[in-house]
C-alpha cells in the first residue's frame, strides 16, 4: 500500500516519532556539513591561490565537486533545521528543497563520472591527454554539467509546482513522502523516473568501467603499487557509499520499501560518502599536499 498525501497516514506508517526523527536528521546534517566544510575549505583556498592547478582537469573537477557538495550540504542542513525547529514545512517548500538537493546530487554524479573518465584517459593515453582534454573542452564539460543538471531539475520543479494538489504542511520531507502529493500519473513522476532510470545507471556503469579497467591494468603489473591500490580502494568505497543513497532517495524506489531507520541510515551513509571526497581526491594528491605545506609554511613565516 502506497502513501497518501495525508499527514495522518504518514504518521501512522512512521516507526519513529517525527520530532525525534527530525532531531536525529538535524544533528547528523549539522555534523556532516561542519565536517565537510572543515575538510573542503583548505583545499578550495589552496586551489584558488594557485591558478595553475585549475589548468589540470582533475583539480578543476575537484573544485566544482567540493563547491557542489558544500552547497548541497548547506541546503540539506537548512531543511533539517527548519523541520527540527518548526516541526513541519509546506509541501511546495519541500518540493523546492528536494529539487535543489537532487540537482546538486546530479551535478555531483556527472562531475564524478567526468573525474573517473579524466583519470582513465590520463593513465591509458598520457601522451594524448592534453589533446583529448584541452582547456576549452574541460571548461565546456563543466559548464555543460551544471547547465544540464539545472535544466533537468528546473524543468521537474516547474512541472511539480503545477501538479501539487495539497497545501498543508509535511512533518517529513523526503521524495517518497512528497511523491503522493503529486498526481500519480503526472508528467513530473514520469519525467523523474525516466530521467533517473536513464542517467544514474549510465553514470555508474561508466565509473565502474573506468575502475575495472584501471584495476585490470594495475593487477597486470602496469600500475601495481601500494599507493595505487589504496587510492583505488578508497575511491571504490567512496562511490559505493555515495551511490546507494542516491538510488534509495530517488523516485524509482516505491514508498512502501522505505522506513525511518533506513532513511536515517541512508542519510548517514551518503554524508559519509560525501565527506570522503576531500580525503580521497584532495588530500591524497601529492601536488595538493605540497601546496598545503607551502601555504602553512608561508602562514607561519608571516605570523613570526
UniProtKB/TrEMBL annotation:
<feature type="transmembrane region" description="Helical">
    <location>
        <begin position="228"/>
        <end position="252"/>
    </location>
</feature>
<dbReference type="GO" id="GO:0004930">
    <property type="term" value="F:G protein-coupled receptor activity"/>
</dbReference>
<feature type="domain" description="G-protein coupled receptors family 1 profile">
    <location>
        <begin position="39"/>
        <end position="281"/>
    </location>
</feature>
<protein>
    <submittedName>
        <fullName>Olfactory receptor 10G4-like</fullName>
    </submittedName>
</protein>
<dbReference type="InterPro" id="IPR000276">
    <property type="entry name" value="GPCR_Rhodpsn"/>
</dbReference>
<feature type="transmembrane region" description="Helical">
    <location>
        <begin position="26"/>
        <end position="47"/>
    </location>
</feature>
<keyword id="KW-1133">Transmembrane helix</keyword>
<dbReference type="InterPro" id="IPR017452">
    <property type="entry name" value="GPCR_Rhodpsn_7TM"/>
</dbReference>
<dbReference type="Pfam" id="PF00001">
    <property type="entry name" value="7tm_1"/>
</dbReference>
<keyword id="KW-0472">Membrane</keyword>
<dbReference type="InterPro" id="IPR052921">
    <property type="entry name" value="GPCR1_Superfamily_Member"/>
</dbReference>
<feature type="transmembrane region" description="Helical">
    <location>
        <begin position="264"/>
        <end position="283"/>
    </location>
</feature>
<dbReference type="GO" id="GO:0016020">
    <property type="term" value="C:membrane"/>
</dbReference>
<dbReference type="GO" id="GO:0004984">
    <property type="term" value="F:olfactory receptor activity"/>
</dbReference>
<feature type="transmembrane region" description="Helical">
    <location>
        <begin position="138"/>
        <end position="161"/>
    </location>
</feature>
<dbReference type="GO" id="GO:0005549">
    <property type="term" value="F:odorant binding"/>
</dbReference>
<keyword id="KW-0812">Transmembrane</keyword>
<feature type="transmembrane region" description="Helical">
    <location>
        <begin position="188"/>
        <end position="216"/>
    </location>
</feature>
Amino acid at each position: 500500500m502506497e502513501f497518501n498525501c495525508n499527514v495522518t497516514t504518514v504518521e501512522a506508517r512512521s516507526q519513529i516519532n517525527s520530532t525525534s526523527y527530525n532531531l536525529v536528521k538535524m544533528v547528523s546534517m549539522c555534523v556532516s556539513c561542519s565536517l565537510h566544510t572543515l575538510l573542503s575549505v583548505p583545499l578550495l583556498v589552496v586551489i584558488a591561490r594557485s591558478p595553475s592547478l585549475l589548468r589540470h582537469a582533475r583539480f578543476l573537477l575537484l573544485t566544482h565537486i567540493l563547491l557542489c557538495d558544500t552547497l548541497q550540504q548547506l541546503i540539506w542542513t537548512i531543511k533539517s533545521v527548519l523541520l527540527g525547529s518548526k516541526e513541519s514545512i509546506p509541501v511546495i517548500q519541500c518540493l523546492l528543497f528536494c529539487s535543489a538537493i537532487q540537482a546538486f546530487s546530479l551535478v555531483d554524479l556527472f562531475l564524478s563520472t567526468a573525474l573517473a573518465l579524466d583519470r582513465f584517459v590520463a593513465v591509458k593515453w598520457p601522451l594524448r591527454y592534453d589533446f583529448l582534454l584541452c582547456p576549452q573542452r574541460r571548461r565546456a564539460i563543466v559548464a555543460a554539467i551544471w547547465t544540464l543538471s539545472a535544466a533537468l531539475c528546473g524543468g521537474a520543479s516547474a512541472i511539480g509546482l503545477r501538479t501539487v494538489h495539497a497545501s498543508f504542511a509535511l512533518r517529513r520531507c523526503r521524495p517518497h513522502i512528497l511523491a503522493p502529493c503529486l498526481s500519480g500519473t503526472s508528467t513530473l513522476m514520469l519525467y523523474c523516473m525516466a530521467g533517473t532510470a536513464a542517467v544514474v545507471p549510465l553514470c555508474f556503469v561508466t565509473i565502474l568501467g573506468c575502475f575495472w579497467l584501471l584495476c585490470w591494468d594495475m593487477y597486470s603489473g602496469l600500475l601495481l603499487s601500494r599507493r595505487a591500490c589504496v587510492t583505488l580502494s578508497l575511491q571504490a568505497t567512496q562511490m559505493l557509499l555515495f551511490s546507494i543513497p542516491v538510488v534509495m532517495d530517488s523516485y524509482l524506489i516505491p514508498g512502501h520499501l522505505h522506513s525511518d531507520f533506513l532513511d536515517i541510515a541512508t542519510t548517514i551513509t551518503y554524508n559519509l560518502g560525501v565527506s570522503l571526497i576531500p580525503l580521497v581526491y584532495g588530500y591524497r594528491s601529492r601536488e595538493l599536499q605540497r601546496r598545503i605545506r607551502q601555504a602553512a609554511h608561508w602562514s607561519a613565516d608571516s605570523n613570526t
